[in-house]
Amino acid sequence: MSKNIGIDLGTTNSCVSFFEGGVPEIIPNPEGSRVIPSIVSISREKKPIFGNIAKRQFISDPKNTIWGVKRIIGRKYDSPEIEKIKSVASYKIIESENGDAQIDFNGEICTPEEISAMFLRYLKGIAEDYLGEEVGKVVVTVPAFFNDAQRQATKNAGEIAGLEISRIINEPTAALIAYRDKIKTDGYYAVYDLGGGTFDISIVEVKDEIFKVVSTLGDTFLGGNDFDAAVSQWILAEIKNEINTDLSDNKDSIQRITQAAEKAKIELSFNSETQISIPYLFHSKKGGNYHFQKSISRDDLELLTSSLVARTIQLVKDSLSEIDLEPENIEKILLVGGQSRMPMVSRYLTELFSKEPKFDLNPEEVVSIGAAMQSELLHGRMRDLLLLDVTPLSLGLETKGDKFTKLIDKNSSIPIKKSMIFTTISDNQQTVKIHVLQGEREIASENKSLGNFNLIGIPLAPKGLPQIEVTFEIDANGLVKVSAIDKQTGLSQSMNVQPASGLSPERIKQLIEDAKEFEMKDRETIRMNRAVAGLNEERESIKFFMGRYSEKLSEREKEEIDILLTQIEEALEEKDPPAMTGTLMKAIDVRKRINNMLVADFEE
Ligand SMILES: Nc1ncnc2c1ncn2[C@@H]1O[C@H](COP(=O)(O)OP(=O)(O)OP(=O)(O)O)[C@@H](O)[C@H]1O
Ligand SMILES: [Mg+2]
Known about the structure:
The chain has 604 residues and is an alpha+beta fold. It has 4 domains: 1-179 and 363-383, ATPase, nucleotide binding domain (Nucleotidyltransferase, domain 5), CATH 3.30.420.40; 185-360, Alpha-Beta Complex (Actin, Chain A, domain 4), CATH 3.90.640; 395-503, Substrate Binding Domain Of DNAk, Chain A, domain 1 (Sandwich), CATH 2.60.34.10; 507-603, Substrate Binding Domain Of Dnak, Chain:A, Domain 2 (Up-down Bundle). Helices cover 39% and strands 28% of the residues. It has 14 helices and 28 strands. Strand 13 and strand 14 form a beta hairpin. It is globular. Bound molecules: adenosine-5'-triphosphate (ATP) and magnesium ion.
């Protein structure tokens, strides 16, 4: 039976895990990393490379080294967030026809979904190599505060990668599932998740073994990357002070500065002071090399980043007040995400809650473990756990005067279904346009547009008479569905769906097919490379035995080996995979036989 896995698809790092005999296991990548850098790049041979290997290309090929896609996925090109990424990204972000943000990867324009899909396909391969079998169903996590477009785009990426996504779950909720056996008393728990790119706070009520998320808030653009940027700004200012040179537009220097900034930031979680040293950072026109070297203290770092932590604390307070809870009502604060390791985070939380937050499980792995656990739970392979999640954003539609009319309130338990009756505003009106939005602002245009739905073919009637029931549904993945029925005729209304963003179903289908072909080809290449390497190895060993022990071999044996060596040469030349595999098996067999024979001879 194939294994179900959980994938924490992070902004900076991803983590894959599964359950074996009720125990979670993390799947490391071939470089041995348990948390895998979410980076895609291209090798000198123009092949996509991933993870740690791709990370090494940061400096040498920043233009084609794509990181932080999770901050781009499901967003419009003209959003303030993309504007911010453009100033720090080493790669090019481009506007698509429908206004989405796209990425220039090695001269090809890719959607963020496609980049994510390439990376997910790489994770799938790692898991399959590790498990020695195809992966089964997959649970992928997303920030709790992701909207429908971001969730849909993530799901599409998984599908393009050839994964069977059984559920999309919220990262803090996944963390909570992983903590389930450590939660012994009923009450309210806070999951504080500060990762590389996003921040989420979820408040969960635990009662009689039922876990109910009661409030969730977050910022999908607040994480460790912003801490790195703050330190980078400090380095840039120091350089300007020292040599009166502004390097903020120099993309190559920025990459090195950002890496040094992150390294220093992490070191300052353990030490009160550290050195930042960036040799050969800048080559001046006068011919001199500039090496940056400065020490930075934990106090300096805290001064630079306290406003970021303060923003998270404000969101924690807001999430509590939304449900009328006081900090002292919280039993435990669970820390998730690498950036939550920063001592200032614990200090601020301790101040707010008058108790220290908990780090019992590894904050970088806990989300993935929860996802794998959910995968097992969904398919009945683990003791059930009743968990009710919520939708982070209100769902509704645009009504007259750019007003946002909410149908489903934020923090409603999901899945949820709600209907509303619509009618026409003019006589003989045959079409009603419905604009679906997600957000909290009263003005419709200030919220996230999910799509336009044209209800067409309404029978001719005076205004106000037709009754069209529109149903809004949010499923367990947090994904939105809208359907409509004409009450008068009882027939479902035909709907013209024009998604405001994302890939069209046809394009997704095409990409899935392309990816499958790509995967088959990739696997064939890998298999072939393996066979070539194996054949070369066997040929050398056999030649070695022949040369060294020829007097111990009979003429018949020598002849057999000669034939085999010719077959190996032919197989290597023809590069026909089945023939190569067949010859390889034979070669291994012969080599073992000679080997045994010689060993036996020596022992005599
Ligand atoms: N000891 C540490 N102190 C401070 N920050 C740290 C430490 N270790 C890791 N980080 C930071 O944590 C971030 C990565 O955390 P994590 O792997 O949880 O994020 P992610 O899952 O990729 O992001 P997200 O969940 O936001 O999508 C990076 O910004 C990294 O610099
Ligand atoms: Mg994370």
